[in-house]
Amino acid sequence: xxxxxxLKIIGTPVKSRSLPNRQRGVVLMISLVVLVAMALAGIxxxxxxxxxxGIAGNLAFKQSATSxxxxxxxxxxxxxxxxxxxxxxxxxxxxxxxxFSSWDETFNxxxxxxxxxxxxxxxxxxxxxxxxxxxxxxxxxxxxHTAGSQECVVVSNSSGTGSETIGANDTPPPDVTSPFYRIxxxxxxxxxxxxxxxxxxx
Length: 202
Prior knowledge:
Distance between the termini: 134 Å
Number of strands: 7
Strand content: 15-25%
Radius of gyration: 39 Å
């Protein structure tokens, strides 16, 4: 015989407690703030990386311009070599190429007017513009380096192992053959890159 038992639960059901209105959506707001912070950090990293690449690129252009500057030095050296057969030519200023028969104490490559400087042609395939000027290392322009009033930096002996400055009223040694010459070349390249190179020769 089967008996049924009816159980009666005494009490009231427990209701779930609802969160206050001010706590609703807090997790979403925190997530948005974290997302914005991550996005800003990513943008900063990209800008830093692109800045580093830009600096590296500018350094490469600078090195390239400096290297190409040798073409200006070589062009000036060849011109000087051709003129040394007649030393009187180098005793005076020459307009083309731009040659100065004095050292010009005020000469500054950064402020010098390069508009009328000699341009090397043809231009490099990479597009740089090369210009140069030549200065004879003598104090007075348009005066022979052997003149009694002249002061020049000259080769001190025939072997060319040293140099000395011959001052006013000094008697040049018999083995002096040529004063020194300073060649300054300027290279203008991409991204407003500008480089200067110099060579002293006799």
